[in-house]
Amino acid sequence: MAKELVAFRNLETHFKTSAGTVKAVNDVSFSIREGETLCVVGESGCGKSVTAMSLMQLIESPPGKIVGGEIFFEGKDLLKLSKKDMSRLRGKEIAMIFQEPMSSLNPVFTIGKQITEPLLYHLNMTQKEAKARAIELITMVGIPRPEKIFHSYPHELSGGMRQRIMIAIALSCDPKLLIADEPTTALDVTIQAQILDLMRDIKTKRNTAIMMITHDLGVVAEMADFVVVMYAGKVIEEASVLELFREPRHPYTQGLLKAKPVINQRKERLYSIPGQVPNPVDLGENCHFHDRCEFCMEICKTKAPPLRAHIDGHKTACWLYEEEGKAQ
Amino acid sequence: MSQYIIRRLLQMIPTLIGISIIVFAISQLVPGDYITATQNPNLTAERIAQLRALYGLDLPPVQQYFVWAKNMLVGDLGQSLQHQMPVTKVINTYVWNSFIIAFFSFVFSWIIAAFVGVFSAQFQYSFFDKVVTLLVFLLMSLPSFFIGLLAIKYFALDMKLLPTGGMTTAGLNATGWAYIKDVGLHMFMPVVVMTTLSVGGLTRYFRTGMLEVIRQDYIRTARAKGLKERTVIFKHAFRNALLPAITLLGFELPGLFGGAMILERVFNWPGIGQIYLASLNLRDYPLMLGFTMFLAVLTLLGNLISDVLYGVADPRIRLK
Ligand SMILES: Nc1ncnc2c1ncn2[C@@H]1O[C@H](COP(=O)(O)OP(=O)(O)O)[C@@H](O)[C@H]1O
Ligand SMILES: [Mg+2]
């Protein structure tokens, strides 16, 4: 098995809001191995972006703060790095693309300027070298006439093109990890497929590890090697993609998979998990899914289940698989 | 671009005609004229009629308007009744005095406001930001005559650091550097007071603009690239925050030449603002109307300049 590149250990990222403390990331642990594509899935608001932003250390503070845990990158605890050392990693070793390609590029600078910026800054290239490299990158992400694009402004490009440019910027310094936070959510379906193709290309050709955030199980099925399922700030299940699709164990994961439309099996209505995501403010110590769970037991309402591997490499946080739960 | 500018300049013509009609009409609605406003008890009715005929005040208003407008077309704003010289000459004599204090306070207030606004946005809710916000409201609510007089009392009368008013020391016939130094000393307080008065609102403007920009996705992108915070703020954010300020920049143009009526009175500064005020009181219509038209032209030009600058600074805007 490949070497571990990133490891979250008991990460706690909280937001202080006027309504109370939001434990957006609550005791999250998982690892990403070199060259692996790991998908983080879960409903909106479950803490996927905050987990990624904690890794980048770009949590808006206040109100947010990483209050506990460790994030290792190649064995170094990022949370112990100085601001300067962290900013050297950012954009160079760890790059990130976002959900909103339309607003993620600075409207007043040319594409060329925005692509060459990290090259000049992190790799100390000359203007000329940087330009040549930028043209290469634009070509690589599949945009024709790179010379013209280099001198264009973001508003002259479509959403799909802009996301390609974001990918080009992210890949400019050949990062070891690429974080993609819902990179296709804001795009048309056909463009989505193209962007996913591009990402898969990157994965196979460059062996970059990818942390892909999505709520779309279709994307997971296409991209992931390994999957982490989050619910209300906690990891509730993790497994390899095949394992997870073959045997989802947590009732929430099962619900998610059931909610996914499958061709040839058209049903009257698509399944949806009953109930709603709990209010993230001041969540208690219990299984946060308990009030939506059809297997809910007494213990689920009072105690949070531990995340444990009951099968090799497949971890689940659910009382159904624990002695305490089985006893009931 | 040049086509755009030419079209905009042509569009100014009907606007200016409209403005000239309106200001002229208003001047006609104001009761009294120069003769009655001088309140000279020695004037006989006969002499008054003579003077009215001399100044063209006896003509019907419509005719007066056309005489005025026709002269204006060839750059003649008429004779100032009060100063007994051409209006253009009166304006030219005093406007530069107003301009120098307005210009320096413009430069200082924009630089200070930009820096303070940016920093207080960057550290929103910090102690610095709170102090700035408090000061801004304090400055914005201070009347100019009040801090003007206060400054005179402390710095000129009590501490005797600076002259109490005027533009030069009476009787000092300095030239060259000595003259510049003398004027500089006299300018100091008016410039400081004017800067103080305008810096509050501007700071708030920059702070709000920066806060707006800092929340944008592209700032997050810039941070994710690992750029220094300084680069993120002063390059990526500030460039964008400046865009709305450009509009404001155009509006400053008439202000640079318009004079500051109250402050010029307080500091006894021989600026156009004081002269303009006097022309209103004395019903010196040629001067009053002429200067009003001058300000109208500057306002329209300022508008045009801000649109052009905006088009240059924001690649999303293409002027056609
Ligand atoms: N700036 C913020 N201020 C307050 N709460 C926040 C902020 N950012 C995120 N949160 C909270 O953190 C939780 C997780 O958010 P996020 O990670 O963005 O969800 P998602 O899984 O959809 O990416 C949400 O419940 C949200 O309320
Ligand atoms: Mg998100």
From TrEMBL, chain A:
SMART domains: AAA. Its main location: membrane. CDD domains: ABC_NikE_OppD_transporters (cd03257). It is a peripheral membrane protein. GO terms for molecular function: ATP binding. Belongs to the ABC transporter superfamily. NCBIfam families: oligo_HPY. This is Peptide ABC transporter ATP-binding protein. It comes from Saccharibacillus endophyticus.
From TrEMBL, chain B:
Keywords: Cell membrane, Membrane, Transmembrane, Transmembrane helix, Transport. The keyword Transport applies. It comes from the Bacteria. The chain crosses the membrane at residues 12-30, 94-119, 131-156, 187-206, 241-263, 287-310. It is found in: Cell membrane. It is a multi-pass membrane protein. The keyword Cell membrane applies. Residues 95-306 form the ABC transmembrane type-1 domain. SUPFAM superfamilies: MetI-like. Belongs to the binding-protein-dependent transport system permease family. This is Peptide ABC transporter permease. It comes from Saccharibacillus endophyticus.
